[in-house]
Amino acid sequence: MTVQHSDSILIREVGLRDGLQAEQRFIPTEQKVELARSLAAAGLQEIEVTSFVSPRAVPQFQDAKEVIKILGHPGNVSYSALVVNLRGAEDAIAAGVKELQFVVSASETHSQKNVRMSISEALAHGAKIAALAKQNGVKIRTALATSFGCPYEGFVPYDTVYTLMEKLFAMGIDRISLGDTAGLGNPKQVSELCRGILSRFPDAPCSLHLHDTRGVGLACVLAGVWSGIRVIESSIGGIGGCPFIPNATGNIATEDVVYMLESMGLATNLDQEKLLASAVFAEKILGRSLNSKQLALLKSRHCNN
Amino acid sequence: MTVQHSDSILIREVGLRDGLQAEQRFIPTEQKVELARSLAAAGLQEIEVTSFVSPRAVPQFQDAKEVIKILGHPGNVSYSALVVNLRGAEDAIAAGVKELQFVVSASETHSQKNVRMSISEALAHGAKIAALAKQNGVKIRTALATSFGCPYEGFVPYDTVYTLMEKLFAMGIDRISLGDTAGLGNPKQVSELCRGILSRFPDAPCSLHLHDTRGVGLACVLAGVWSGIRVIESSIGGIGGCPFIPNATGNIATEDVVYMLESMGLATNLDQEKLLASAVFAEKILGRSLNSKQLALLKSRHCNN
Fold first, then answer.
1. Secondary structure of chain B in the HEC alphabet?
2. What is the mean pLDDT of residues A289-293?
């Protein structure tokens, strides 16, 4: 894969999963499905729609099986699910998921708090999940959480990330997503880590999952893209964050990422008007204003009319 | 001047001018002065505090003379003023201003709408203002508005900017500020234009004055800094915008720029806690929440305590 010099960027939508997991109020299944379909209609080809976790831990995803079943497998889009352990992976595959993402933390403390496992245990689960996925013809991806810093342990050394990535690719992982779970990354760090990764794993697919907790989310996306990363994960309307980290709200809004990339001449192959309509719908089902600059601009246009 | 490789960035604060000019309600002189002094206490060395324009055009600055007089000339900070014509420059110099900034647009239509002059007329005024400033030992700077695009004319060719800069430097202008008046710039454009400028005028001081209208403000700052620009203009709390351009609200918040640069190891020599206190004070005197990520984080910390 020689994506570094391409002028097109793949956007992977995570709002329905990373966004909704922080939502206290249960969003009805049919609204989740409608949002997923509107995102697909805007051209998104990869949409993470749910998580197979304990309904006690995250009640929002008690309808994971149903969401996957209703959405099915249209040809133009992959509706995927997150899992944090082998049990979740088994459930997801049984439900018909064709693309799985599981989580490994780059920090021991965050790993314990997030999935109640050590990094080694999470990797062992990961190896079993990867094997299970391969047996079932399911794509398998990994979110490497806290790649850019841990709220408990601070800076995560680049070598820690490289070593974990090596182990994950050795399991046959299709793509690794570098997660800035607590929004601690800065553009210099993103640039250095991405360049380090692409020099060590030039053919290995990587994506960036950055948060805008401290306002530098889009600057970090820019740093990643300029370093050669060609897959960016974002959340419609900017909904979400990690419920296990205080103040880690603020995913990057898909429509803001797309505006920036398209303004620079990088093709996302997405329909910006339809994306904005999806963001408006996300606001409607969540019943509040979302943190997206494109939504703010839309509202100010309406005020002036 | 060989600033390109330095690890320190000068922040020029414009909130009291570019911020307040969009405020309908008159802010009492003593509050303006208190805000200016709190910004200086945070370490800001260049603060644009007012504008010598017709009080009918911008009633907010009817106290320009008084603000300048009260603030005086402490050794550690330069309190400057904006002017749009020769009359304003004469008034400012008479009031004791030691650093002036005047505006030239890079687009004819914006020039007419903003200062009711053609670009040529604005340049002619500029030459007289520059001569007057030099005679009086006053520093003279220029804001080159709409350098990254005009809301009426669209994209502004790089050559238009280069040609205007050449004319301005020939007048003896001390520094040129490239203004993204309508927030139309993108990081690729900022990078290309800044690199083009620094290759043509390697010794000439330039600053960037970017707006966050479309959410890419900090990404554009990053692009500028990575291209070698070492002076960034921003507004405490992100207050402001251009009152003559619809929806051009959203200056970049000083505290957000400073967070990003410092997180990357670039020194601003500013006290981030004191800056945040200034932003809180700005919210207090404006009577509303301002659009700054650092302020939002501060509030969410308070909520959790």
1. CCCCCCCECEEEECHHHHHHHHCCCCCCHHHHHHHHHHHHHCCCCEEEEEEECCCCCCHHHCCHHHHHHHHCCCCCCEEEEEECCHHHHHHHHHHCCCEEEEEEECCHHHHHHHHCCCHHHHHHHHHHHHHHHHHCCCEEEEEEECCCCECCCECCCHHHHHHHHHHHHHCCCCEEEEECCCCCCCHHHHHHHHHHHHHHCCCCCEEEECECCCCCHHHHHHHHHHCCCCEEEEEHHHCCECCCCCCCECECEHHHHHHHHHHCCCECCCCHHHHHHHHHHHHHHHCCCCCCHHHHHHHHHHHHC
2. 86
Write down the pTM of the prediction. Answer: 0.94
Residue with tokens 């005024």: B125
The stretch A60-89 carries a mean pLDDT of 96
Alpha-carbon span B53 to A60, nearest angstrom: 57
Find the range with the poorest average confidence among A108-122, A270-284, B90-104, B241-255: B241-255
C-alpha to C-alpha distances, B223 to A34, A247, A251, B191, B192, nearest whole angstrom: 38, 28, 22, 5, 9
Cβ contact, residue pair B219, A214, below 8 Å = no
For chain B of 305 residues, list the mean pLDDT of each consecutive stretch of 10.
63 96 93 98 98 94 98 95 94 97 96 93 95 97 96 96 97 96 94 97 93 93 97 94 52 96 97 98 92 85 51
Per the residue annotation, which of A150, A206, A220, A242 is the catalytic one? A242
Of B189, B218, B304, which has the smallest distance from its Cβ to A218's Cβ? B218
| Distance to chain B for A143, nearest Cα, Å | 24
B183 contact partners, CB below 8 Å, separation of at least 6: B210, B211, B212, B213, B214, B217, B248, B250
Query: How sure is the predictor about A159, in pLDDT bands with cuts at 50, 70 and 90?
Result: very high
Q: What is the mean pLDDT of chain A?
A: 92
Question: Which residues in B lie closer than 8 A to residue A188 (C-beta atoms)?
Answer: 263-265
Q: Give a three-class secondary structure readout of A267-296.
A: ECCCCHHHHHHHHHHHHHHHCCCCCCHHHH
SS3 A139: strand
ipTM: 0.93
What is the set of domains in chain A, with CATH numbers?
10-304 (3.20.20.70)
Q: Catalytic residue at B194?
A: no
Contacts of A189 in chain B (CB under 8 A): 264
What pLDDT shows up at residue A55?
93
Describe the crossing of helices B272-286 and B29-41 by its angle, rounded to 10 degrees: 170
Q: Do B186 and A260 touch (CB under 8 A)?
A: yes
Interface of A with B (CB under 8 A): 186-189, 212-216, 218-219, 221-223, 246-247, 249, 253, 256, 259-260, 263-265, 292-294, 297, 300-301, 304
